[in-house]
Amino acid sequence: MFEKNNLLFFEDLPNDDNIIHFFSKKPFNFSKKNINSKIIMENYTNIMNNLNFSFDYVRDCVQKHTSNIVILNDSNKNDTSFDNADGIITNLKNIPIVTYYADCQPILIYDPIKKVVGNIHSGWRGTTKKIIVNAINIMKNEFNCNVLDIKVYIGPCIHKCCFEVDEDVFDIFRENFNNINKFTKIVKKNNDKSKYYIDTVGINISLLRNLGILVKNIFYSNICTKCNYKDIYSYRAEPFNNGRNIAFICLK
């Protein structure tokens, strides 16, 4: 990834005549719960000026760590926000779709042949519910995308080095993935209580590969949000800060 004006970009997903994308960094804050809507609009205006790209509004979800995904089309494009969903897929142009994150995985999906984009919020709950599988299946079944054409970009998120969980959370992963030990480091701590460090990025990459997504079409950021909390909002590093980054993608 590379940075410009407090925005992060994948080199392999160029901002060109067809598409525009970014992942925000501090000081941009898009937390609807804690930031005045006027400031959020000012953030968008600054970004539009930086990218020389204008838009009238964005479409997002009221994220609740589900595996639900909205198909944005002509019938619902005027809805301002979608409740109980954690992802949007669309082939509509000039309507940016946005997800919010502060450790969870922001995943952008792009089919350059069918001209379809997706924006998925995959926290640990969404990962265990396999939201990325739902997203790819929607691309295939609703938009007739070929898995060989689909490209997936996993943005900055918490990595295995910092995603520490107790037995109760590990049990949920174990129930959903019979190969979870492949993605887990187990550490004994006080009173012989185990702590588990789970590679959720690796899990989603494995799910994508099982769906037929080509290795060369899967890209991921090496940036751990908790390790880099001074630059990117991390809930685990700053639980009382409540800042939010955004992942942004739009067909042009």
Would you kindly provide a written description of the structure presented here, covering whatever features stand out?
With 252 residues, the chain is α+β, with helices and mostly antiparallel strands. The chain has helices at 37-51, 124-128, 131-143, 167-176, 200-210, and strands at residues 2-4, 7-9, 19-24, 60-62, 70-72, 81-83, 87-90, 97-101, 105-111, 116-122, 151-154, 164-165, 184-188, 194-198, 218-220, 245-251. The strands form four sheets. The chain has a six-stranded mixed sheet with strand order 5-7-10-9-11-15. Strands 1-2-3-16-8 form a five-stranded antiparallel sheet, with no helix packed on it. A hairpin with a 2-residue loop joins strand 1 (2-4) and strand 2. The longest helix is centred in the first third of the chain and has 15 residues, at 37-51.
Given as residue ranges, the uncertain stretches (5+ residues, pLDDT < 50) are none
User: What is the succession of H and E elements?
Assistant: EEEHEEEEEEEHHEEHEEHEE
Strand content: 25-35%
Largest sheet, in brief, is: 6 strands, mixed
Q: What would you call the shape? A: globular
Order the strands across the largest sheet as they lie in space: 5-7-10-9-11-15
What is the number of E strands?
Answer: 16
Number of helices: 5
Mean pLDDT rating = 95
Distance from first to last alpha carbon: 22 Å
Class by SSE composition: alpha+beta
What does the radius of gyration come to? 18 Å
Percent helix, as a range, is 10-25%
Key features of this structure:
single chain; 252 residues; alpha+beta; six-stranded mixed β-sheet; five-stranded antiparallel β-sheet; 16 strands; 21% helix; 28% strand; globular
